User: What shape does this take?
Amino acid sequence: MKSKSYSYIGISFIVLIFGIWAVPKIVAKFQKSDLVEIGPVPEFKLTDQNGKTITDKDYLGKVYVVEFFFSTCPTICPKMNQNMLLLQQEYYGNPEFGIASITINPEYDTPEVLKAHAELLGAKHYNWHFLTGDRDYIFNLAKKGFNLYAGTNKEAAGGFEHSGLFALVDKNGKIRCRRDVQGNPILYYDGLEDTGVKAIKEDIKKLLEE
Assistant: This one.
């Protein structure tokens, strides 16, 4: 009888210790991170590489990254897309992660063209949508919705100009970011530099754990 009592005491002690260790970690998982909330992501309704209508509502419950690009871009887009591949590699298979790559040359970048581009690039995550639609609608979404520049320029390589920044959106559809060394919100992440990719990779993890 004594040995059985000692066993119960031992098991109870282990459960108690585990509870003391685990509860703070479980609570922390559902707490907000230190990332700044900039505001709601602008509403959008576009068509992806599979001809499917995708809206901002389809991304609710997911942490996702937004970029503006075009498939024939000879300058910064290849680097941006390669860095998106690094994010895909980091969070591949995670159903709560996604990417929205929005073309600023929709007249050329049809769903069929974007599908071929995605395959050539190696985009395999099922929540990575290459999106197209009306050009004026997309320009307005970029400039007024996200406050990221996109426009035509006949003198620019490829005929377009656009921002090389990535927007980070949380599961509730809020644009989020970290603060710089002075304590100011950075707003968006540099999609061309390793430091920007490293930062957004770390902050995606924070948002996934919220």
User: Anything to note?
Assistant: Confidence is low (pLDDT under 50) at residues 11-29. The first helix runs from residue 2 to 29.
